[in-house]
Amino acid sequence: MLTSARMRTARTEYRGARRWNLDGKMGERLLALRKEHGLTQEQLAEKVFVTRQAVSKWERGESVPDLELLVALAEMYGVSLDELVLGTRADEPEPAGL
What is the pTM of this model? Predict the structure, then answer.
């Protein structure tokens, strides 16, 4: 059973994930990149020093990696932070109105 403190933490984690997961698809991108590189969740977790459960949460959109990990993941996968977080490539023009 969840305690009220854990429920508050879970809500905060979910809100934080929604705030930083701007288009709602960062988890899908993380999953696709991991698979493109032939890694299991466990292997990725070992490379970036987190648990497999953390990787699973990222891919399901329940949480997001911290900035330090986002930078490491982008470097490891050979993509920009924009591509990883926003889904846009550096060579693509920005949408009008931003």
Answer: 0.70
CA dist 58 and 53 (Å) reads 9
Amino acid at site 98: L
Q: How far is CA 29 from CA 2, 24, 41, 55, 74, in A?
A: 30, 10, 14, 12, 11
pLDDT tens, residue order, the chain (98 aa): 444 554 444 444 445 545 555 667 999 999 999 999 999 999 999 999 999 999 999 999 999 999 999 999 999 999 999 999 999 876 655 556 55
Rounded distance between C-alpha atoms, residue 71 and residue 69, angstroms: 5
Q: What residues contact residue 60 under an 8 Å CB cut-off, 6+ apart?
A: 27
In this structure, the number of other CB atoms found within 10 A of the CB of residue 26 comes to 22
What CA–CA distance (Å, rounded) separates 14 from 19? 9
